[in-house]
Amino acid sequence: MVRALSPESNEAIGERLRLIRLAYGRVQGYPQDLKQVEFANICGLSRQLLNNAEAGRERIGLDSAKLIYRRTGADLLYIYYGETRALPLALGREIERLQQTQRSKKA
Fold it and tell me: Which of 49, 52, 74, 96 is deepest in the core (most CB within 10 A)?
């Protein structure tokens, strides 16, 4: 049986960061999925920091999360708790599409 992740776990936060990265790339019109190194550069982060955060090995710090927010509009409530109501509309819709695709692949 697969255990559900707490929305505040490092793994859940990491998954939301991955979704932000992919959704942001699509909203911005990138022809392929935005790579970690590209997204890290766009946001002013190191690739290693982003990689560790997305993998759930480390919790992203507040200052780094604020850099992501400033670039993408993905607010801290979404990053840390999964609250979607304050996401920019296009980003939120793309994240929802990515999640639906992910769920259908698991089914």
Answer: 74
